[in-house]
Specification:
Number of domains: 2
Radius of gyration: 21 Å
Structural class: mainly alpha
CATH superfamily of the largest domain: MFS general substrate transporter like domains
Number of strands: 2
Strand content: under 5%
Largest sheet: 2 strands, antiparallel
CATH architecture of the largest domain: Up-down Bundle
Shape: globular
CATH topology of the largest domain: Growth Hormone, Chain: A
Number of helices: 16
CATH class of the largest domain: Mainly Alpha
Distance between the termini: 55 Å
Order of helices and strands: HHHHHHHHHHHHHHHEEH
Length: 430
Amino acid sequence: MKIAVYFLLMKEIVIHFVCNFQTQLPTNDCNMKTNTGALLALMMFFEYFIWGAWYVTMGTYMGENLKSSGIQIGAAYSALAIATMISPFIVGLVADRFFAAQKIMGVLHLVGAVLLYAATKIDDNPTFYWVILLYSIMYMPTIALSNSVAFGQMNDPGKQFPWIRVFGTLGWIAAGLMIGTLGIEKSNTTFLMAAAVSAALGLYSFVLPNTPPKGKSADTTAKSAMGSQAFVLFYNRPYLIFFIAAILVCIPLSFYYGFANKFLNEVNMTDAASKMTLGQVSEAVFIIAIPFLFNRIGVKNMLLMGMVAWILRYVCFAYGDTGANTWMLYAGIILHGICYDFFFVTGYMYTEKKAGEKIKNAAQGLFTFATYGVGMFIGTWFSGFVVDHYKITDDSHNWTKIWYVPAFIAAAVLIYFILFFREKREIKQA
């Protein structure tokens, strides 16, 4: 019954957003506008539903079914970081040059569905890791490909894209609500659910609007795929200080992505996956405030607020429980909006302003490669070692001491940033 209510709500939201989106598409055919907007919205919904369905609870699943150690869980999460570093080459050197974006996205999702299903049949950690790594290499390029399909139908992406991208957040939330409602956080049903939607999106991709390849003449090399043109930004001291801080702050981020759900289950929070979607709701709310605050309080204060939020989040987790301090668990989850938006979204905006029009795409690619690739790779492995170090039994950990670690790291990054980052209110191109 609850699931039916969720989907009825999603239907109303789709209608509302498509009605807003259709007036901005580059065609005068009203039906075409509505159809295109609905196709893109559903594509984004499925794209991030898949990610939210298996990623959030993977650590809990591994601990319960594979008896995985913290290091093994961290390694599995590092697979996505490795895929993030590889995917620019797949998209830039192959997909963009030789294949229509929607077609290669369809193939990748169909292969991904098979791999997600295969993951449910594995009972040893080494094999599980390699399957998740291979799946991640299939999945991560589809993020860029789905964006390409959406941008290909827009004449003003700055105004139109947010209306479509928000369905990705709704998809992630829907996945969490379904997992929590069905009580399947510790079972392989999460992977089966993701596999089913991946297969559906794979087939659905072939009816998406055509987004033809750029051709062999596209100016893409291995170096440009990872954003090497943006290396010139490192000559700008404020940006270099920020860039180092961004990599380091990915270590605390890794603790949340890899172990928050496992922690909430160990402290017996009911429907933890559902309640963790409050983080995505918070993310959607706070992102609205960023354009207003960015120019009013300046990039430095925005970034500082994000780093302070990281410290507060882990203090809340360290002392939260399902008794009198339940509010601290909720606070730690809801702070995700400030943690993520005020640092990473603001970071993307800051990167774009420093780079300028000529190298902004390379700069964004470099920032993603360094944070979600290098930074998350370091963070996922390190968080696994820390969780194992404070293990009490197979089913319990000293979470207070575990959460102290990312809190102290975030505090150290905050001090480093305050001491060395100097940027004027009016950001000038590097």
